[in-house]
Amino acid sequence: MITGADPRQVRTAVVMKNGQRAATLTREDDAITFRYEGDYLGSSGPAVATTLPLTETPRITRGGAVPAYFANLLPEGRRLTALRHAVKTSADDELSLLLAVGSDPVGDVQVVAGDAPAGSQDGPPEPDQAEVADFATIDFDDLLAGAGIGDPAALAGVQDKVSGRMLTLPLSHGGRRHFLKFEVPEFPRVVDNEAYFLTLARRLRHPVTRARVVHDRVGRAGLLVTRFDREVGPSGQVRALAVEDAAQLLDIHPAQKYTVTSEAIATRIGAVCAARPVALRAVLQQLLFAWLTGNGDLHAKNISVLASGAEWRVAPIYDVPSTAAYGDSTAALPLAGRRANLSLRAFQEFADAVGLPARAATATIAEVLSATEPAIAEVENGPDWLETRARRDLLRVLRRRRRDLGG
């Protein structure tokens, strides 16, 4: 529920970085001005975002827009539509929408209304979200009704295609913070679909977000995803970690998440990460895994970097449902100039374009082919979440793509 001040009436919002007051977002006529505070500039604190360097010069955006970093903290799809209705504002009033959901977004930045203390606070603010002790005792409908659309967690990774139509809510369970993804009628058994491919991804030499299927008291399934941007200390204190998705790194708005190239994403991620070759391999790894599992929704918001200290690294893999099971068989992003019929040569051209040595690219391709090899037999012999036609279509896609890559 939206509580407190009407977001539309808030002139200045406070931007907190890792619990410390760092900057403001101020409405000025038809513009939004982002400005660092003097005390923060005088401290040793990091920049709010990679695209918002520490400087006394303000960043001004017009037409109701906020800088792209903040726009990418907003939910998308169904949640954004419902949020606009709840706030009673238009899609281009991004500051009001951000204030309605921005106190516990992904990462270590919070946007809050009113006067925030100039000093630091321990950990991210406590979000106004559900605490679930036992899923078998609750009804998912009650969770959705109780949360409303104005809950304070802005969910990154909720996109168009399959992921954009999924309903996702933040909650606490077992002393940790999570996202709970619900089933939607357009994509039958998508919860089990994603759970399977997350399990398959664990065969890769890269971290994968922790997730498991839970059921409510009437047997409905949900995917409980543990937030990788929240660490819990020995005393139970929650620590927020900095996260930026590729759209934020590239300084583009969410609507552009399908318009950039795979090469642009890899190049930018490689530039910000401490170990560039490792980062480039991780990006290639995720592009290959998406292609070989029929995931056509790996776009600029579905690959991120994470910082637990001063150095960035590629974040754990997340949002990996096979969209080919629902008839979506093209890649979300162009790679080597194409979105369909990606061949071994296309991935080799990608590696060459971003500066990943051929030897490393060959090893990565072999790794992902090996990791995804069980999928053919496992999809063919089950699982029960695939209807007969969907299974047949998915198998055709998986087999062809393995052949095209030499698997």
From TrEMBL:
<dbReference type="InterPro" id="IPR012893">
    <property type="entry name" value="HipA-like_C"/>
</dbReference>
<dbReference type="GO" id="GO:0004674">
    <property type="term" value="F:protein serine/threonine kinase activity"/>
</dbReference>
<keyword id="KW-0808">Transferase</keyword>
<feature type="domain" description="HipA N-terminal subdomain 1">
    <location>
        <begin position="15"/>
        <end position="111"/>
    </location>
</feature>
<dbReference type="GO" id="GO:0005829">
    <property type="term" value="C:cytosol"/>
</dbReference>
<dbReference type="Pfam" id="PF13657">
    <property type="entry name" value="Couple_hipA"/>
</dbReference>
<comment type="similarity">
    <text>Belongs to the HipA Ser/Thr kinase family.</text>
</comment>
<keyword id="KW-0418">Kinase</keyword>
<dbReference type="InterPro" id="IPR017508">
    <property type="entry name" value="HipA_N1"/>
</dbReference>
<feature type="domain" description="HipA-like C-terminal">
    <location>
        <begin position="154"/>
        <end position="373"/>
    </location>
</feature>
<dbReference type="Pfam" id="PF07804">
    <property type="entry name" value="HipA_C"/>
</dbReference>
<dbReference type="InterPro" id="IPR052028">
    <property type="entry name" value="HipA_Ser/Thr_kinase"/>
</dbReference>
<protein>
    <submittedName>
        <fullName>HipA domain-containing protein</fullName>
    </submittedName>
</protein>
